[in-house]
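Data availability (excerpt). The following record was deposited with the supplementary files.
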Amino acid sequence: EPLLRESLALHRNSPLCSSCHSRMDPIGLAFENFNALGMWREKERNQTIDAAGQLITGETFSTVRELKHILANEHRQDFYRCLTEKLLTYALGRGTEYYDVETVDQIVQRLDRDKGRFSTLLTGIIESAPFQKQRNQATATAAESGDLSEQRSETRQIAKNQTQP
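Predicted structure:
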């Protein structure tokens, strides 16, 4: 039975699979020294694990530490941008659009300035125009449909019932 590296090489050689596998395989293989439970291992099926790889941008690495160094130093902005876009997508409940680029750029600049602090990312998203506008639109829609006034009446009734013996 072939090792994982050998199996993945077959996918990279297939035209239908290579576009994704050439991007993901080097990164995934760098983590092969970790088993399914996250424990470090040197061998798989009595063969030494080869964690070396080359990113599609050309950088080569031999260990997961070298990959981490490349990503943290050479591709920091890319990481910040991807993380920001993914978290913003989650926060908005929709994909990012062309009009979100300025927001993402501002958050990435703040992340870079603050050395990647997660609180900077969260604050940037919460304070962003797309997030604030989305929240205001949801409130306005609820108010227009009467849901908001019904919710307020129910809340008042619950509070009144809790204060009465």
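Summary of structural features: Helices lie at 4-13, 15-30, 64-73, 76-92, 101-113, 118-127, 129-144, 147-163.
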